[in-house]
Design goal:
single chain; mainly beta; Jelly Rolls; 9-stranded antiparallel sheet; 2 helices; about 10% helix; globular
Length: about 210
């Protein structure tokens, strides 16, 4: 075999094996939990009171915030507990004033203990935790040009790896922190209206928790 033919043969073998050699690690990881919020299969809490309404409709988990200056949350620990993961969630502001906040809860212990990563309708990003019923700001709200303003869909993502927490909006990493308050827990969602008049409608979709490499 000539040197040229030998080189071509080696190149051919590399090309044939490339789909295995260069498969992104994320494609090989398992899924810890996923929910597309199909009304026929999901079992998230649905209820209504004077402050809020949570319901499943149109393949979304919806919340209507009726009262300003209160954080409305819905969460589940029955499918956990989750410690280390990459969480992704689509969140859409459907209607209401842009002066709001909405996002994801993770490592939820109960109503008084959890992490909360959120964005606002006017393009800010923030992080806080609730410990023994008291909120603690972990990352002050930061204006982000990657947040879709107003009535639009945003993809939120969290990588939780031990005490290292990294946060993404629409594929862009925004910040990383170290915190040891909660090692594992449930997952959920939150929404808050910060102004009047009107009501705020947020719709959540396609929640997925991936294993970490």
């Amino acid at each position: 075999m000539t040197r040229k033919n030998a080189c071509l043969a080696i190149l051919g073998l590399l090309l044939l094996s490339g789909c295995t050699l260069f498969t992104p690690p994320s494609m090989e990881l398992g899924i810890l939990f996923e929910d597309s919020f199909d009304e026929s299969i999901t079992d998230w809490p649905t209820y209504e009171n004077v402050n809020q309404r949570w319901w499943i409709e149109g393949g979304h988990y919806n919340v209507l915030v009726k009262t300003p200056h209160q954080s409305m949350t819905s969460w589940r620990t029955q499918v956990g507990s989750f410690g280390n993961f990459r969480l992704e969630l689509e969140a859409e502001q459907v209607s209401g004033p842009d002066n709001n906040a909405y996002g994801v809860l993770f490592r939820v212990i109960d109503d008084d203990n959890y992490y909360c990563f959120y964005i606002t309708g006017d393009s800010y990003v923030g992080l806080k935790k609730k410990v023994a019923g008291q909120f603690v700001v972990l990352f002050p709200e930061l204006l982000s040009y990657f947040v879709h303003w107003g009535n639009d869909v945003n993809l939120l993502a969290v990588i939780a790896d031990g005490d290292q927490l990294e946060f993404f909006v629409n594929g862009e990493s925004h910040f990383t922190i170290t915190d040891t308050a909660f090692a594992a827990g449930g997952i959920g969602m939150m929404a808050e209206m910060r102004t009047t008049p009107g009501q705020t409608h947020i719709a959540f979709d396609n929640m997925v928790l991936h294993e970490l490499p």
